[in-house]
Structures
1.
Amino acid sequence: MKQDKPLDLNAIQKKGLGMLAPTRARITVGMATCGLAEGAGKIFEALKYEIKKQKAKADLVVVGCNGLCYAEPIVEVICPGKPRITYGRVSVERVPDLVASVAKGGVVKDLALMRMDRLTAEGGASIKYAGTKVPKDAAALKECGKLDFFKKQMKLISKNAGTVSPEQVEEYCALGGYQALLKAVTSMSPDEVIREVTVSKLRGRGGAGFPAGFKLQACRQAAGDAKYIVANGSEGDPEIGMHRSFLESDPHAVIEGMAIAGYAVGASEGYIYLNDRYQVAHERLTRAIEGAEALGLIGSNIAGSGFSFSLRVKRGGGAYVCGEETALLNALEGSFGEPRPRPPYPAESGLFNKPTVVNNLETMATFPAIIAGGGKRYAGIGTPGSTGTKIVALSGHVARSCWVEVPLGMEIGEIIKTFGGGVANGKKIKGFQAGGPSGGILPAKLLKIKLDYDRLAKEGSLLGSGGLVVMDEDTDLLEMAKFFTDFFADESCGKCSICREGTKRLQQIITDVMEGQGTSEHIALVKRLASALSDTGACALGKTAAVPFISVLNHFPQVIEGKLLRKKA
Amino acid sequence: MVSLKINGRKIKAAEGTTILQAARANDIEIPTLCSNDALKPYGACRLCVVEIGKNGRVTVDTSCTYPVSEGLEVHTNTPRIREARKMILELHLARCPNVQIVQELAAEYGVTESAQQMGKDNEYCILCGLCVRACNDVVKAGAIQFAGRGLGKIVDSPFSKTADDCIACGSCAFICPTGIIKKNDLFSTALCTPDGCDQTGPQREILNWKVEHKLKSCKKCGNPYAPEPHLEKVKREKNLPNEFFDICPSCRQYPVVDPDKCLGCGGCMENCPCGALELEDKGGYDKKAQLYPQNCTACHSCELICPMQAIS
Amino acid sequence: MSKSTRMKPGAKKSSQKKASSPATAQAPQAAAPGSWAGSSKAMFELMIKEVPESLQDVFRVKLMDILGQKAKGGAYQEAQVVEIVNEIVPEPFKSNILKGFATMGGVDISLVEGIVASYPGGQESVPAILHALKAKFGHVPEEALRVVSQKKNVFMSTLYRLVTSFTAFPTDSPRKYTVSVCDGTGCHLKGSASMLKKLEEKAASPDADINLEKVRCLGCCDLSPAVLVNGEVYSGDDAHAKISEMLGE
C-alpha cells in the first residue's frame, strides 16, 4: 500500500489538468446510461476508427452525462487554444465531420449546441479553453455559461459530470477533488467536520430529509468496536435514474464524501449498496475505488493522518423496499429485504448491529462541498429550512428530459419551464409528481410552490429523491394513481399485514372506481385505509401506499367523483 | 429500571423490555396475533400498535418491538388506535374470513365482516410468521421460511418440495394460531398394492411441508413417542447414547434424591448436563439437591456421581 | 439430456386411514406405480447409454426389474437409480454415470463450488454469490443453492426465500430471448402499458421462447416507450418489428 509514499495532491492535480486540457485535441463521448441507450457506444467506436483513419491528433475519452439527456449522444471536441465545443444528437454518419474539425479547426455548425470558453472549478484550477480571441465559427455559438439551462443551475456537487473521465481520478483531483478529504483528515478534528455539516443544515437527500449532521453526531457518540458508512444507491423509484447518471459520471464525489463521513464518526469501512441493474455504474465505481486506492487517496493511513478508510460496492437484489435504510442493512447482511423495527436506529445499531451512518448517494457527495466551502456558506444557499442545492431529474411529458442541480427554493414551475422546456408538444400541464410515487400527484396550480422539504410535505407530497414528472392535459390521472398503487403492491415486502393486505385492497378499490363500479363507500374505505396505513405501516412504503389515490382524490376530486355510482336514496 | 406511563398509570419496567411486556406485566391488555413469549418480536400483524409520547411528540408504533425508556407516555386504547386496529382486523378478515381467532379478535372490536368493497379470499394462513420463527430461531432446524414477497408471500418449504431439514418436531403446528398446519400422528400405515400390503410402523406427517417421518416407539410401553429425526437432533446436540432413546419420557425413571443421605455438595448439580438439579433450602442444616423433572433427560449422570449414593 | 432445473415435488408413497381435514392443505400426491419422480427417467436413460449398444436392450429389462423391486410399487426415485449405479454398475462406467448425474440439468457442481469458494465470509457473502451464479448459468439453479447451503452453513429455506423475494435471482432456466419493457413513470406516461400488452400477446404464443419482463427506467426517455430486446434499446413500434423479425414472422 501507499502509506509510506507521501501524498502529493499537487502533482496529481497537475497531471489531471494536463489530461483535461491537453496539448493534443481531446474528444469526449457522453457514455452514461442515457447516452449509451441512444447509441453512444457505436459513436465511440466510430470515432476511434475515424481518428485512426484521419490520423487525427486527438485523445478519445469516455465521460459521463452533463444533464442534457434529451440531446444524447453528446460529443465534445476540445482543441488546444480553442473553446470547448459541445455537439448533440450525433449520428455515426457525422463522425468523420467531427474528427475532421480537429484538423480543420472549424465547427460542425448544424450539430453544435454550445461552446465553453472557461471552466472554473472551486478549489481547483480554472481551465481556459479559449484564448482572448474566440474563432469566428465558435463565436457564433452561445457560450455555455450564458445559456439559461446552465446559468440558472448551481452545480455544486455535479460540476464534474460530463467533463471528467469517471475512471481517471487525476481529472477529479484537477478540479478540486479530494482536497476536502485531505483538509478534513489533516487539519480538522472529527467534531469539527460534524460541526460544519450541522451548520450547513444539510438534510438527507434520499427522501426522509433527516438532518445529516445529527445523524453523524449520533453515530459518533454511539458505542461500538466497529462503525460503518453505508451509501444508499438502490434508487428504486420508477422514474428516471439520475443517481445512476451521477455515479456513472463522477463516482469519486461519492467516494470522497463517504471517506469524510467515515472520518467524522470513526468508521474505517464503507459499503455502497447499488441497484442491481446498474452495471455500468458498478464497473465505474469499482474502478474509481481502485484508482483512488492506488494513489493513496483512500485506503490505509490516508496522507499519514492515521485515518484509514476502505469501501466496497455490493449489488442489491432488485427490491424497492431495500431503499429503506433498515431493509437495506438487512440485505447487506445477506438477509431478507424487510425493514427492522426502530428504535434502535442505525446510527446506534445498524450493519451487523454496529453504529452505522446510512445516507443517500447524493448526501454523501455533498460532504466534500461542505468541507471545502464551509457549512455556513452552504446554509446560505436555498431556503432556511431546506438549505443547499438538489439534483432534480425531469421526465414525463416534458419537452426536454434532463437532470440539473438547482438551489432549493426554486419554483417548481420555473424548473420545469427553464430546464425542461415546459410541456412537450405544446400541450398544457395537468399535474406533476415530486419525489416519486410516495409524493402523489399535485395539480398545476401548485407549480408555483418552491422546491422545499417542508413546503412539499405541507401539500401531502415530498421532496424525496428529487424527481419531477410532468403530466399533460391528456393524462388519465386515475390510471396513474393505479400505476403507482400497483408499484407499491408489487414492491411490498409483505411483512406487515397493513401494507401487504392494504395495497391489495387498494388495487381492487381503484379498479372498481376505474370501471365505474365505485361508490361513496369505496371512497370512505380508502380514507380509513390511508389512515391505518399511515399510522401502522412498518416503513415509508407502507405508510405512503395510499398517497397516490388520496392525492388524486384531494387535488382532482372531479376525476373520481365523476366516475362514482350514485346510490339511489 | 425505567419509569414510564401507560394509560396514565405510572409503571416501572426493566431496561431492555418492550412496551408490550411492560403492559402485560401490569395487567394492561393489548391484542396481538404474531407475538409469543418464546420468540423475539417480529411486528407482522401490527395489532399491538399504541400511541407513544416522547419529548412532546406522539408517534404510533408496535408495542411488541418498542423498547421502554424513561419518561415515555403510552396510550393503548385511544380512538385513533382502535380505528387502526379495526382496519387491520378487517383486512385480516377479508383475507381469512373463516379463521376462528381472527373472527374472535375482530368481534372484540365490533367487526363482524370485512367491507364488501374490499373483496374476499379464503386463506387460513395469517402470515404471522410464528411457525417460521419457531423453526428457525428456537428449534434451529430451518426447514421452512417465508417465500416470495408482498401479495404472493407464503410460508413454504424450499422449492415447495419435501422439507428436507424438517425434524417433524411439530413446533410449527403447535404454535400456529389458525390451525392450518396439519400434523397427524398415525399409529400405523399400510400401502396396499395388488402384490400385497406393506406395513409401516407409526408415522408423523406434516402435510404442509410434505413431510413424513417414522415415530420411535418406546421399548417399554410400546407407544410411539417422538419422530426419529427429532431424536437424532437431540442425540447429536446433547451427545447421548442411542439406548437413551429406547425408553419414552413417560416410562423413563427420573432420579429421586434421598434428603437424608444428601450432603448438599452440589456435585450432581454441576454434572447435570440439563440444569435439572438445584441446591435449595429444605429447612434443615444444609441445602439439599432438588430435581426439576421438566429439564431432566434421565441420563443418570447425577446418580453416578453422587458420593453418598443419595440418588436412585 | 433433459434440462430440468425445476423438479416437481418428490411424490411420496402413502395411503392411510384418518379423519379428513376441513381446511384446504396441500396433501402429498399418492404416487402412481411406474411413474418417474424428478429426473429419475433421464438418469436411468443416461445409465443405459453407458452400456455397449448391443447389450442395451438386455440391460434395460434387467435394470428396470431391479428398479421396480426397489420402488416397491411406488414411483421410481432418483435415489434408487443412484443406488443401482453404486451397487451394480462396474467401473469405469460407474464414475462416468455418476459424473453425468452431477452435471445433469446443465449444472456443473464443480463450477458452483469454484464460485462459492471465491466469496469468503458467511451469510453476507451470499447475495454476491447468487449474482455470480446467475451470471454463470443464466439463472440460479436449485442444485447450486444446495452447494451454497452446505458450504456457507445457511439453511436451504433461507436461500429459497432470498431467491424468491428478490427479482434479481430467477430460478427458472433462461429463455432464448429477453425483452424488457420499460415501465418507469416516464415511459408509462408515454404508453408503455399498451406496448406491454401487445408484446404479451406475442410472447404468449407457444413457440415464442421469450422472457418478457417489466423493468424500471432504461434511461432513454427520448425513446419512450423504450424496450430492450436482447441488449439493444428500441422505441415502441420499432421494438415490435424487431421482435417479429426475431420470431421469424
Note: Chain A has four domains: 20-151, 178-379, 389-472, 477-561.
2.
Amino acid sequence: MKRKLYLAPSFRHTALLLACGLPVAARPALPALTKPALSVAADIPVTGRVVGTDGKPLPGVTVLVRGTNLGGSTDADGRFSLRAPEGSTLLFSFVGYVAQSVVVTSSNAGSISVSMRDDTQALTEVVVVGYGTQERGSVTGAISSVNGPELTRQPVADVTQSLQGKAAGVTITSNGGAPGGAAGTSVRIRGITSAGNNSPLYVVDGFPLPSPGDGSENQLNAISPNDIETIDILKDASATAIYGVRAANGVVLITTKHGKAGQATVNVDGYVGVQTVARRLNLLNAEQYAVINNESRLAAGKPIVVDRLRDPAALGAGTDWQDLVFRRAQIQNYSLGVTGGSEKASYALSATYFQQDGIVVGSNFERYTLRANGDVKIGSMLKVGNNIQLTHLSDRQVASNGGGNGNEYGTIQQLIRIPATIQPYRADGYWYEPTGSTDNFIEENPLASAQRNDQRFNRNRILTTFYAELQPLKGLRIRSNVGADLIFDNFNSFAPSAPPFPGVTSRYATAGASATSAYAPSYLIENTATYDRLIADKHQVTFLLGQSAQEFNYSNVEAYRTGYLRNDLRVINAGPINTLLANVGTISSPQHLASYFGRLNYEFAGKYLFSAVARYDGSSVFPPGEKFGFFPGASVGWRISEEPFLKGNPTISNLKLRAGYGKVGNPLNAGRFAYLYSINFGITYPFGPDGTINTGGAPTRLANANLRWENNDQTNVGVDVGFLDNRIEASLDLYNRNSPNLIAPVPVSYTSGTYEPVNTNAASAYNRGIDFSLTTHNFIGSNGGFSWTTTLNVSAFKTQLESLGLGVPYNGTSTLAGDPIVRYAAGQPFGSFFGYVADGLFQTADEVKAAPKQESGTAPGDIRFKDINGDGVITAADRTFIGKPNPNFTFGITNTLNYKGFDLSFFINGAQGNQIYNQNRYLLESALYGSFSGGTIVLNRWTGQGTSNDVPRAIDSDPNRNLRVSSHFVEDGSFVRLKNLTLGYTLPQTLLSRIGSRQVRVYVTGQNLITLTHYTGFDPEVSASGVDLGIYPQARVFTGGINIGF
Amino acid sequence: MLISKHFGGAFLLSLGLLAGCTNKFLEESPSDQITDANFYKTQNDAIQAVTAAYSELTKEGQYNAALWAMDIAADISTTGGGGGSDGIEYTQLDDYNTPSTNFVAQRLWQGSFIAVQRANIVLQKVPLITGMDPAIQKRCLGEAQFIRAKMYFDLVRAFGDVPLYATQPTNLDQVNIARSPAADVYKQIEADLTSAITNLPTSYSGGDLGRATRWAAQGLLAKVLLTEGRKAEAAVQAKAVIDGSGKTMWASYGDNFKVENENNNAKESLYEVQFVNGRNQYDRNSVGSAMNQFFAPRRGGLVPAGDGYGFNVPEPDFVNGYEAGDTRKAVTVWVPGDVSPNGSLQPKSLPGSPFGYDCKKWFVGMVNTNIWDSPLNVPVLRLAEMYLIVAEGLGATPDGFEALNKVRRRAFGVDYNTPNAAHDLNAGSAPDFQAAVMRERKYELAFEFDRWFDLKRTKSLVSVMTAQSAYLATVGVRRGVPTDKNYVFPIPQTELDANPKLVQNPGY
C-alpha cells in the first residue's frame, strides 16, 4: 500500500545539519592574537573610559594587563588609568558582559574607549539549585536552564509545552491538543523509572507543588508563562538529592519574575491567533461506506438490513463529519507587567488573560492570573518578601480519550466511526440521533457528544510564599519560608433533555445534573541557614542547613440528580426532590512530610569544585519503622580552563569536567496508607421492597506491611566546553540510573477474594542515557548587525525493566474492548506493547490450510498471525512484545537570527525510533467488519489473491479477529516537526523616543507548521504512553502579537 | 546584632521543636479508611460483611454479564449484537473457540471467588463478635454458607476442579494453592447448604427482603444433588421445599418477571438477585441490571439509552419449538410483528438478528433513567424448577408425570393442580420421559441461564450442539462445533499468570 511521502533518513539528517547551521562556515571573528608583552617594553600611562551598550559609563569593570597581575577597575564614571607596557593587551571584564581586549599603542594609550556588549549568556550565569543559587561555572551536577523569550515564544497555556526540545535530557510529549493544555504534557527527565508516576517535582519560588495523585500532569497550566523568569531543571541525583524522597523523577525549579532596583518598567504583551486542525484523516464518504458495509455483510452471508445502503451510488458524499466537528478557533493572550524597585524594596506585579477555543466544537479554555512579588529591607539585616499568585481557570472539555483506559464515548472516536450516510441535524436543528434500523449505527452523534452537556471545570488556585531573611553577619543568611498552595476545583455539568420531535424517541429523554467540588490545600514551613565564606582567598565554602515540613490535604463532595423536567434551571437544587441522588465524597486524612537537609559546596581557587547534599525525609503515609529515608548526593568538578596552562586561552575558553552520584526517592507509587489492610465500603447490594442500597464492607487488597517508596541511584559524568570565547558552547552528560526497588503492582489471583494488585517493592530497572546540548553563535553582530545563534539539544536513553522480583508481568493501558496493549515484563523497556505478530495477509485457501490454525472462520484476506511458540495453533500464548513507546532519541533545534530590528527564530523538534499503538487505525479499519464507518484505507482492502498484503478483507463480525491487539496496529512514531516559526520587528529607538516608549516589538508566529512522519493518525505526539486511543488533535496556530515596554 | 540574636535563637529553637515534634507530625492513620483492626467488631459490621458477599451477584461475574453466556453457549441463543468485535466475549463461546482471556470465563471466575472469600471472612469473623443478636449471628452464617455454596457451585460446574478455600487467605502463599478435585468441592457445597438450611429463617420482611432463606438453601441443595446425578436425593430436597415452603406458582408464567411481583414470600421465587435502577451509571458492576439494555431489540425507542443492543438472540428452532398455546413464548421472546410499548412493531429482521427474534424475558422498557440500569430482579431458583427436579428425580412414575405436568399446565394458562387432558403428558405421549423433562426445562427456564449447565450435566453438550450447528448452517447462522474440552471453560490466563500452581484445563 502507499503511504504518505516522507523524507528519507539521510535527507532528514542533512536537513537537520542545515538547520543547525555550521559554525565553521560562519567564520567567527577571532579576537586579536598578540604576543604577550615583553617585560623589556617600558610601561606607559594608559587611561580610558568604559561604557555599556546604552552608552552609559560602567563602573567596576575589571581592567587587567594580559599575562600579569597588573590592573584595576573603572570608577563611577567608567574611567580607568594604569600603567602598562606598550604593545600589551588590556582585558576588560564585567559580569554580564562579553570580555573585551584592546592592544595598547602609543597613539591610543591616552584615550582608550571601550564599549562592553551584553553577554546573552549572562542570564544563565546564576543557576537555581534548590534552597539557593549557584554560579553556572561552579555547578557540578547536571542542570539545564531555560529562560527569557524561550518560555513565551510559543502560544501555549502550559509552560511545560514551551520546554519541549529546549533542554537536553528532558523529554516532553503533549497528551493532546485540547485547549489550555488541559490534557497535560508528559514530562520525563532522563527516561522512565516507574510504571506509575514519572512526573518531576515542580517547585515554584521555593514551594514544592503537591504531586497529582491521579496521573493528570497539567500541573503548570495555572501559571502564566509570562510570569516566569527562569526554569532550572535538576536532572541528576547529586543535584536532586536536596529534594530527597520526591526527587526521583527530577526537579523543575520555576522562578517567577522579580523586580530589580532601578526605574520602573511596564511591559504590555498581547497576541491573537487562529487555530486549525493540523491534520485530518481520510474518512469514507457515504457511497464508499455503503459499498464496504454491503460487501462485508454479503461476505458473511448476512442480508443488507438498512434499506438506504442498497444503492450506494445514490448516496453521494454524504456528511463530512470532520468539517462539522473541527473548526477554526481563536486563541489570545494579554499580559501587563510592572517591575521596579529601589535599594530598599522591589516589586513585580502582573496580570494575564489567556483564552483559547478548541478546534473541536464545544471545547474552550480561559484563564486569569494575577501575581504580586515583592520584598522590602527592614534595617540593615532583615529582608521580608512575598510571592503570591491568584489563578482562575475555566475549562470546557470534550471527551476525547486523552489517555488512560478506553473511553468508548469520546468525540474523536465517534467522529471516525459514524457513517457519512447519517445526517448531522434533524429538521428542527437539534442533533440527529442515529438508530440501528435506519442508520446501522447506534452510537452517539459526535456533535452531540461534544456539545450537549453543559459542563465546565473551574479551578481557583492561590499559590503564595512569604519569607523573612536575616543577615546577622557577613556571609550568613537565615531564611524562613511559609507558604500555601490552595486549589479549589469545581465541576458542574447539566445534560439537558432533547426537545420533542415527531417520530423520534430520544436517548436524551431525561435531563440530569451533577456537581463536584474539591479542595486541595498544601502548607509549607521551611527554615534554612546559609553560610558563605571565602577563606584565605582560595577556599570558597558555602554551607546550607535546613528543615522543611509540608502538609497535603484533599477533600471532595460530589452530587448528581436526574429526572429534571425542564432544561433551564441547571443546578442541583433545582432538580426533582424525590429523584435519585448520589452523594459521594471524601476527606482524606492529611499527609505530612518532615525533612532535614544540608549542602556543602567547596571550591578551591575556582578550579576544584566539590558539593555534597543530603536529605532526611519522613513521610506519614509509610508504615511505622519505615517512615524515614536518607538521600545523599555528592559531586565533583574540575574547571580545567582555570588552570594556568589554559587560562586565557581564546580557543578553549571553557573546559569543565563534572561527576556526581546520588540517591533519591519516589513515594507516589506506593499510594497512601497502602501498607494497611483496609476495608472498602464502596461495596453495595440492595435489600427490601424498595431496593434500599445497603453498604457492605470487605478488604479489596491484601496488605503489604513492608511497602516503601521507590529508590533511584544515579551516576552522572559530564563535560562542559566552550570554544572561541564561548562562541561555541557544548555540554555532554552521561548517566546511569538504577531503580532497585520499584513498586510493581503484583497481580493477585482473584481467588484471594481481593482484586487490587498488591504494591510491592519487587521490580528493578535501569535508565542509561546521554544528554547533549550545543550552542553556537554563528554570527555576532553588534549594533544591529547580523547575528545568528543556534541551539541544539539531543537526548537519548535506554530504559529497561530488569526484573519483576516476586511480581509477574502485568498489563497497562488496554484497548476499548479491554484487551491489554501495554505489558510490563522483565527484560523489556517500560511501557512495551504486547500482542500478536501480524505477518501479512493470507492470499489463498492453501496458505490458510498450511498455516498454524487461527480461528474457525479464518479465510484468505485475513491477517496471518505468527505462531511464536510453534505449537501449530494461534493462542494467547503467541503474543509477544511488538513495540515500545520510548524514542531512541529526541531533539530540538532553535535558530535565532537578528538583523537590524528584525528577529527570526525557528524551532524544530522531533523524536526518532519510537512506536505508536495506533488505535485510530483500529477504528479506521473497523469499517471492514460491520456497523461502523472508517477510513479510506479500507478502499485498499484485500479483494482477491495479490490485491493487498496489508489491509484485510471486508467481512462482517471479523471471524479471524483481525482487530485483536497485534503488530498490525503498531506504527513508527518518529517525527520531525517545524514546531514554531517567529518573525519579529523591533521599532528603532529613534521612533520609540518620539512615542515615549522603551521598546516596541511586533511579531507573527506559526505553530506546528510542518510535521514529517510515517504515522497515520492525527498526530504522532500521543502522550508518553505511545497508545493513541483517539487523542484530541494538535492545532496549527498562527498568531500575531505585540510587546510594548515603557 | 540584637535582632539577629533573637532571630537566630528563634530559628534554632524552632528547629529543635520541630525535630521533637517530627514523630508526632508523621503519626497518621487514615481517617477515611477502616482497617481490619477496627472492623468485624459489631453486629452492624457483621451485616455489612454479609452484604459485601452478596454484592457480586449483581455484577459482571454473575448476573450482569458472565451468566448470560449459559444460553448463548447452548442451543437457545446466539450472540447477536452489532457485529465486528461487538460481543466478542460471547461469539467466542458461540464458536466454541474460547481463549483463556475470554471475558465470560474470567469474570465468572473472578466474581465467584470474590464472593467465596467474602463469605469466608463472615464465617471466620462473625462467630467471634460478641454482643450480637444470636438470631442475626446465625442468619449471617447461613447467608455466608449459602453464598459460598452458590458460588462454588457455579465455579465447579464451569471450570471443573477449582482451588478450595475454607478460610480467607491473607498472604500470597495462602492464596496460591492448587485446584482441588471437583468431588471435594461438591462435598463442601453440600456441607454448606446443609448448615445453611438450619441457620436460615424461612422468610423475611421489610428491609431484609431479598436475603437467602432456608428454602433458597434447600432448593439449591436439590439442584446441586441433581447436577451430581443423585436424582432421588435431589427429588427429596425439592419436594421438601414444595411441601414446606408454603409457596405456590404464579398462575401466569409472566408474573415471575415483573418488578411489582418481586420478593413475594408466598409465591414462586425461592431466591432472587436484587436489582435496582436509577444509579445512572453505565456500569455492570453496580446494582442496576443491564439486561434491559443489552437484550432489547436493536432498534430505537424501546429502552432508555435509545437502541437496545440486541444480544442473546433466540435461535429459530427454539422459537419455532413452542407448542401452540404455550404462554411462555410471548413472555420469553420477541418475534416479528410483536407490538412494543411505544407502538412500533418488531420487524422481520434486525442487525444481528436475521429473523427478527430477540430475548424479551428481561425487558422492562423505559425506566426512570437515561442509561442502562433496570430494576428487574432475576429469580435464581423458582418453585417450577423444584417440580421439574422432582419429576426428573422420580422418573416416569405417576408422581413424576404429575410434577412435570404441573409446570406444563401453568405454561398453557390453566390451573396447575387440575389434570388437563389437552396438555398433560403421559407414558403414551412422552415415551422418553427424561427427554420430556429436559425439553420442559429448556422452555421453562430459557434465558434464566441454565441450559448450558443442563447440557453439561446430561453429557449431551457435544452431540446436541454438533447437530445444532449443522442445523443453524442451513438457515445461514454460523456457530462452532464443540469438542469434549468445551465441557468446561478455560481457567483465565490472568489467574494462571498470578498463581503458578494452577494448571489449565485440557485442550485450552
Note: The longest helix of chain A spans residues 286-299.
